[in-house]
Design a protein that fits this description.
The complex is a heterodimer.
Chain A lengths: L3 E4 L2 E5 L4 E7 L3 E9 L5 E7 L2 E5 L2 E6 L4 E6 L8 E9 L6 E3 L3 E6 L1
Parallel strand pairs in A: 2-11
Antiparallel strand pairs in A: 1-3, 3-8, 4-5, 4-9, 6-7, 7-8, 9-10, 9-11
Chain B lengths: L3 E4 L2 E4 L5 E7 L6 E7 L6 E7 L5 E2 L8 E7 L2 E6 L8 E8 L6 E3 L3 E5 L1
Parallel strand pairs in B: 2-11
Antiparallel strand pairs in B: 1-3, 3-8, 4-5, 4-9, 5-6, 7-8, 9-10, 9-11
The chains are: A mainly beta, B mainly beta.
């Protein structure tokens, strides 16, 4: 079993829909990252969370430390949101190593 | 936000040659950088942790003599794929955490194709 599990693996949505991507982890962490990877390969860090909720534009990320679960929400989705979304947790030790989920491939259709 | 660059963005080489990939943190100092490889439709796999001024730490199963890492300054780490073979063809990405806050910044990646 992976230490970081994401669901769903693939998601197709219509433009304007509200999207939720889930991430569960089984290890102790110091922070959780949500990353976005576009087809060209470049990775953008969307959020880094250690508690609560963060919002940036149409994106919202929440984390429940007790339940070891995080969600990424996209409101009013748009075709340009199409990408792979990756959940990664930073281990609870002294390093800044990240453990990655397998990613969620999102396609938003016009 | 902070920027991490990689060079080259893509490279094609013949089997048996060596290829060097550079990772630079452009506006902050990075005592640690991470090197990953990613195969198509798979997630990132950590290869090694590059430490400024000391030896890199390699993940299990990664050959240190094949993937040479040098972190000679606080803004530059290099990964050299020695005697490259077609199975080394992959997408190589570096990241650097900023000490203040711990946020990680990723390079744009280098696509290596070994013929």
């Amino acid at each position: 079993k992976n230490e970081v599990e994401q669901s769903p693996q693939n998601l197709t949505a219509q433009e304007g829909e509200f999207i939720t991507i889930n991430c569960s982890y089984s290890v102790g962490i110091s922070a959780l990252h949500w990353l976005q990877q576009h087809p060209g390969g470049g990775i953008v860090s969307l959020f880094m969370l250690s508690s609560g909720k963060k919002k940036h534009g149409r994106l919202i990320a929440t984390i429940n430390i007790q339940e070891k679960h995080s969600s990424l929400h996209i409101t009013a989705s748009h075709p340009r949101d199409s990408a792979v979304y990756i959940c990664a947790v930073r281990d609870g030790g002294a390093t800044n190593k990240l453990i990655f989920g397998t990613g969620t491939l999102l396609a938003v259709q016009p | 936000g902070a920027v991490v660059s990689q060079h080259p963005s893509w490279v094609i080489c013949k089997s048996g040659t060596s290829v060097k990939i550079e990772c630079r943190s452009l506006d902050f100092q990075a005592t640690t950088m991470f090197w990953y490889r990613q195969f198509p439709k798979q997630s990132l796999m950590l290869m090694a942790t590059s430490n400024e001024g000391s030896k890199a730490t390699y993940e299990q199963g990664v050959e240190k003599d094949k993937f040479l890492i040098n972190h000679a300054s606080l803004t530059l780490s290099t990964l050299t794929v020695t005697s490259a073979h077609p199975e080394d063809s992959s997408f190589y990405i570096c990241s650097a955490p900023r000490l203040e806050g711990g946020e990680q910044f990723f390079g744009p990646g280098t696509r290596l194709t070994v013929l």
